[in-house]
Amino acid sequence: MNLDQITQQYLELFPGDLSGNPMQRQTPKVVFSTAKIAHFENPELIISNEKLSEEIGLGKIEKQEDLDFLNAKYLPSNVKTYATAYAGHQFGNWAGQLGDGRAIFAGEIKNDQGLKSEIQWKGAGATPYSRHADGRGVLRSSVREYLMSEAMFHLGIPTTRALSLSFSGEQVVRDMLYDGNAAYEKGAVMTRTAPSFLRFGHFELLSAQGEIETLQQLTDFTIENYFPEIDSDSPNKYADFFKTVSEKTADMIVDWFRVGFVHGVMNTDNMSILGLTIDYGPFSFLDEYDLNFTPNTTDLPGRRYAFGNQAKIAQWNLWQLANALFSLIKDESILENILNDFNTNFWIKHDEMMAKKFGFDKLQEGDDEIFTSAQQVMQDLEIDYTLFFNKLETYSDDIDFKIHFKEVFYSRTTEEQFEKLKEFLTLYQNRLAKNSISKTDSLNLMKANNPKFIVRNYLLFECINELNEGKKDLLTKLLIALENPYEEIYPEFSVKRPNLYDGQTGCSTLSCSS
Ligand code: AMP
Ligand code: MG
Q1: Are 39 and 224 in contact (CB under 8 A)?
Q2: Which residues contact 207 (CB under 8 A, 6 or more apart)?
Q3: Which residues are catalytic?
Q4: 9, 30, 28, 131: which is closest to 84 by C-alpha?
Q5: Is 121 helix (H, G, I), strand (E, B) or coil?
Q6: 457-498, pLDDT tens digit by residue?
Q7: Theoretical Cys-Cys bridge with 378: which of 214, 256, 281, 383, CB 3.0 to 4.6 Å?
Q8: Alpha helices in 92-235 (DSSP H)
Q9: Which stretch of 307-311, 381-385, 401-405, 509-513 has the lowest confidence by average pLDDT?
Q10: Dihedral of alpha carbons 342, 344, 345, 349, sign
């Protein structure tokens, strides 16, 4: 790997705390603090992502030194490590300074096309932002982030990427359910990359501290580096910036709805300024379609981060970003208009996306009724979201619909409910007949927008159990399947969640503990 080409622009550009003091503390007026990695003694690599390494300009992973770098065991002399300061609104409340408590930056690397990628270890040690925690990661959450972020990438959804995953060689104590039953778990460290890991919370922190000059500097830096579509000489550049962030966020949420992804912790510190899916914690793909589903046990009383709430929450989070950027834009009406447009644009994009899932040429009048009717049927009959669309692809009205759809239900279906499904199917077939594209083109649209394979939580659960027993077979298969999500490579993965996993902790219900 070209480790010698890693540089640290933050250290040169922004105010930082260079003391190297690892004490957890408030760090006012700075964008980052220098931080040290753990230098694990006996780490063991589980997976590395050579393709990604080459794509971002790090090159082939070949030398022992490369592995030691990924394992947070070795640092080349040019790599000066740091953690950034950010704030956030958690579950709707201002949480003040948070920051990279479990992530440490190595810096950034440029590829041949000049594209920059930042590199971070997650779980490689405590930083000033660790807030009484250890800065370590456990195998469970690291495997989930590695596989899910790569799965999202191959589904075509903006996301941070995973470069490697290792056992750290340490045992880490976690109270997984926050119920007083702490236990040792295998420690793990992963490396991840993104063009930038900046979050809404970075901007919120500087604004809350009244550090307007630094806020402006960070915003200018973000525009110049990551928003080439914005004219950085324009007097409207900050409003354009907020508008573009808002659009990118809407696109990301539309994609989440397309594949049935529930993030689980959409706090503003977990919202990427680039509209990337970031910080994979208690996430889940939908098995049965349920707008009220939240995989996060911490979110259970209010279901703030439930599947169907995600657009509303994204807009709420954008409000917080708008507040943070107010001192640069200074015009409430501009911000309000952009926030209102978010809602309108989101639903237009959402409906266009749904039309593709159903194989419609373009949105026609009455299509929204079909979408609502499908949602109602999927919700009422507890139908598997992914399998339903896969089955629609091969459905025609000359086959017995009860037999065709029999594997998609999570509960017993009454005759009355079957009637509702039949009604929807008739509506759907009539609409397909009005398509101005061929049947083949319609089918191709469906195939390109409906995954055949999603990384269901029960698969991750089984994979983690296997890895804990020293086996990698399922991991290997999942890595192949997730690279080709629009094909059916392993038929055994194209089934609904087995009953055995209903309500299973770590599978249907997850906590933020990681
Ligand atoms: P999350 O819920 O993962 O988005 O994390 C919220 C905040 O808690 C972030 O500032 C994290 O860096 C911090 N955090 C979470 N887990 C740990 C950990 N094990 N050690 C240190 N900080 C952590
Ligand atoms: Mg986070």
Answers
A1: no
A2: 215, 323, 324, 325, 326, 327
A3: 269
A4: 30
A5: strand
A6: 999 999 999 999 999 999 999 999 999 999 999 999 999 999
A7: 383
A8: 139-154, 200-208, 212-226
A9: 509-513
A10: positive
- Tokens at 181, concatenated: 């039953």
Tokens of 390: 């896969």
Interhelix angle 212-226/200-208, rounded to 10 degrees, is 160
* Category of 117 on φ-ψ map: left (φ > 0), alpha (ψ -120 to 50) or beta: beta
Which residue, among 133, 28, 125, has the nearest Cα to 85 in the 3D structure?
28
pLDDT tens-digit map of 297-344:
888 889 999 999 999 999 999 999 999 999 999 999 999 999 999 999
Alpha-carbon distance of 107 to 118, in angstroms, equals 6
Alpha-carbon distances of 290 from 300, 307, 308, 309, 392, rounded to whole Å: 14, 7, 8, 11, 19
Please state, rounded to an integer, the average pLDDT across all residues of the chain: 96
Exposure of 375 by Cβ count < 10 A (0-12 exposed, 13-18 middle, 19+ buried)? Answer: middle
d(CA 111, CA 361): 38
3-state secondary structure (DSSP) of residue 244: helix
What angle (nearest 5°) sits at the alpha carbon of residue 371, between those of residues 365 and 376? 140
How close is the Cα of 132 to the center of ligand 1, in Å? 10
Over residues 169-221, the pLDDT tens digits come to 999 999 888 888 889 999 999 999 999 999 999 999 999 999 999 999 999 99
Amino acid symbol at 237:
K
Q: Got the DSSP string for 41-61?
A: SS-EEEEE-HHHHHHTT----
Within 6 A (CB) of ligand 1 lie 98-102, 129-131, 133-136, 265, 269-270, 279, 281, 512, 514
CA distance 186 to 176: 13
CA–CA separation, 248 vs 97, rounded Å?
Answer: 25
pLDDT in tens, 103-140: 999 999 999 999 999 999 999 999 999 998 899 999 99
* Residue having the nearest C-alpha atom to atom 11 of ligand 1: 101
The token pair that represents 141 in the structure block:
């959450």
Contacts of 467 (CB under 8 A, 6+ apart): 46, 139, 143, 475
Q: How far is the CA of 228 from the centre of ligand 2 (A)?
A: 27
Q: Locate 499 and state its tokens.
A: 């009953």
Ligand approaching nearest to the C-alpha of 133: 1
Of all atoms in ligand 1, which is nearest to the CA of residue 86? Answer: 10
Whether this prediction's pTM lies above 0.85 is answered by yes
Calculate how far, in angstroms, residue 102's C-alpha sits from the geometric centre of ligand 2: 9
Residues with CB under 5 A from ligand 2 (ion): 270, 279
Query: Ligand 1 atom 6: the closest Cα is on which residue?
Result: 98
User: What is the best residue among 23, 91, 98, 296 to mutate for testing ligand 1's pocket, by most ligand atoms within 8 Å of CB?
Assistant: 98
| Residue with CA at minimum distance from ligand 1 atom 19 | 135
